[in-house]
Design brief:
single chain, Muramoyl-pentapeptide Carboxypeptidase, domain 2, transport, Bet3, golgi apparatus, globular, 195 residues, alpha+beta, NO_sig/Golgi_transp_ligand-bd, 48% helix, ER-Golgi transport
C-alpha cells in the first residue's frame, strides 16, 4: 500500500470514528499517569504499566480497524513487507484512532522508527524538573508502545517497541523504534492457550 493510499484510508476511517474532545482525552490520560506515579515507586514500573495497558488496547484495535474498514467498503491489502506494515500503522492506524499521522523512517529491513510531531496524550504536560534524573526515565506516552506491540501481535508480528526520543524530554520529535523479533505462526496468541 502506498503512503498516499494509507493516508487516504486513514482520513476516511477518521471520518467514521466517534470523536472525543482532545483536551478531555489528554487530561484523562494525565490523571491516569498521575495515579501510576502515586502507586508505583520507580519510573521503570510506571513505564511497564503504561506499556501493559497499551498492549491490552492494541490487541483490540485491530478488530476495530478491520471492522471500520469493512463498513467503509475499504480494502486493506495484506502487507508483504515491514515497510508496508509501518506505513499502514503510521498513516492509517494513527490517523484513525488519534487523528494524527506519523512519519516512517526505516532503520533496516527488520526495524523502523515512527516520528510523531503532534502527541495528543501530551497536551498540557510538563514533566517536573526538581527531582533531576527520576523524570528523565519516564516515558509519559509509553502507552503507544504497548498499543503498537499488541496490534502487531494480532497480525502475527512479534515486535519490541521503545521510545528513543520524547518531546517532553527536550527532543525535537517523539520517536518510537519498532523492531521485528519474529513472524508468528497463524493461530491463537499466548494468552488464549490452554494450561
Amino acid at each position: 500500500m502506498s503512503k498516499s493510499a494509507a493516508a487516504a484510508n486513514g482520513h476516511t476511517l477518521w471520518q467514521k470514528m466517534p470523536k472525543a474532545n482532545a483536551e478531555l482525552f489528554a487530561l484523562t490520560y494525565g490523571t491516569l499517569v498521575t495515579e501510576l506515579v502515586r502507586d508505583y515507586e520507580t519510573t521503570e514500573e510506571i513505564n511497564e504499566q503504561l506499556e501493559k495497558m497499551g498492549y491490552s488496547i492494541g490487541v483490540r484495535c485491530v478488530d476495530e480497524f478491520l471492522a471500520k474498514a469493512d463498513q467503509a467498503n475499504m480494502v486493506i491489502p495484506q502487507c508483504r513487507a515491514l515497510q508496508e506494515t509501518a506505513e499502514v500503522l503510521a498513516k492509517t492506524g494513527f490517523r484513525m484512532f488519534l487523528g494524527i499521522s506519523a512519519e516512517v523512517q526505516m532503520v533496516n529491513e527488520s526495524s523502523f522508527s515512527l516520528l510523531i510531531y503532534e502527541n495528543p496524550l501530551a497536551l498540557f504536560v510538563e514533566l517536573p524538573q526538581e527531582e533531576g534524573d527520576k523524570w528523565k526515565a519516564l516515558k509519559y506516552s509509553n502507552l503507544y508502545c504497548g498499543i503498537i506491540r499488541g496490534a502487531l501481535e494480532q497480525v502475527n508480528l512479534r515486535v519490541e517497541c521503545k521510545f528513543v526520543k520524547d518531546i517532553l524530554q527536550g527532543d525535537d520529535a517523539n520517536e518510537i523504534r519498532v523492531e521485528l523479533k519474529e513472524v508468528l505462526a497463524d493461530g491463537a496468541g499466548d494468552e488464549y492457550k490452554e494450561e
